[in-house]
């Protein structure tokens, strides 16, 4: 049962209100009535709700109110220089050198000097800095900003809307078929500890097809607090592949939310991969708005020490004849904690729904913990739905089998872990991206990929 009554504000809760009060007039779009209205409504929502805590059912495993003690100042973009080698260290050499339309956001600011804006325009994609666009939002941005599958009672999203300082707005034009991925690289900076609040918009118009890769990396800043929201709208008969890599600093706070809406006959294929941050919360809210649409959302997280990664997913089948698939894997070592909360809701009248969900965890330590809460709420009678969750240790018999054939124990363990994660990685259709994440898995394990 949720208990929304808040008796007092913590130090961090008040600091967030103070941050808005001090920075509000300098935020992008402060003089635009549309943007100012969104910000005012959002901060009022946050002031009423406060930070989420364990008495709220969706946050029972991740008490943000208790974990967030101090709020850091907003990160200010200062045009920091970035060498190519720093891209490779931040996100890995394979992805840093990926053949793609590159968009680079540093300290919340879209860096046109590091981005291929012209190439995207020639390919039929409009890409604009959100920070600049907020000053005078175009009509297509107004129809999307804070409008895609909105969550009016989510304080983390409300804070993002109130404090957003930058990001990227993408519009893949009607019928555009991209020949290579769009790589949205988001880096934190090199200065003092700070917070960054970014908003990305991805609109795939009817009949279009493309791939968007979001990479979050660390340039050296310590103590980063990130709140990132991406709004995704996939139009009629459009197809979008969406991959996220998160490998931020070991002491970072990473709050990420995807808001997704699918029109008729749309196809959405997504994957999230996490190895970074001390505390990560990945929220995915997906809604079917048109019939005969399909989505496949999967992911893998590799955690050690005292890392905490929470994936919370809500898929709403509001119309008939739609299909959803979810598969998430977690590998947990030391005192790491993984969380998966997945809910599928089938609304009345959403007949012929096909929804399946699965999560699995591999525990490498007796101190590691995995909390799974799969849920189904079905209000239609002609559906095929199912869910499941598993957790366990490495199979001793399989280890013995490999060691009996001359494979050293450490290598045998790594082979079994990679096979466990590999089931999820196989969901990624792009071979280069799949290989890059497989290499990242091997790097986390401390073994050679080749």
How would you describe what is shown here?
This protein has helices spanning 11-23, 33-49, 64-67, 84-91, 93-96, 117-123, 130-133, 139-142, 155-163, 396-404, 409-425, 431-445, and strands at residues 101-106, 109-110, 125-129, 168-172, 182-187, 195-204, 209-217, 225-234, 239-247, 253-262, 267-274, 279-288, 294-303, 308-317, 323-332, 337-346, 354-363, 369-378, 384-392. The termini are far apart. Strands 2-1-5-7-9-11-13-15-17-19 form a ten-stranded mixed sheet. Strands 3-4-6-8-10-12-14-16-18 form a nine-stranded mixed sheet. By secondary structure, the chain is an alpha/beta fold. It is globular. It is 25% helix and 35% strand.
The general outline is globular
Number of strand segments? 19
- Low-confidence region ranges: none
Which band does the percent of strand residues land in? 35-45%
By secondary-structure content and strand pairing, the structural class works out as: alpha/beta
Whole-number mean pLDDT: 94
- Compute the number of helices: 12
In whole angstroms, the N-to-C terminal distance is 50 Å
Helix content: 10-25%
- Quick one: biggest sheet? 10 strands, mixed
Oligomer: single chain
- The radius of gyration computed from the alpha-carbon positions, rounded to a whole number of angstroms, is 21 Å
Strand line-up across the major sheet: 2-1-5-7-9-11-13-15-17-19
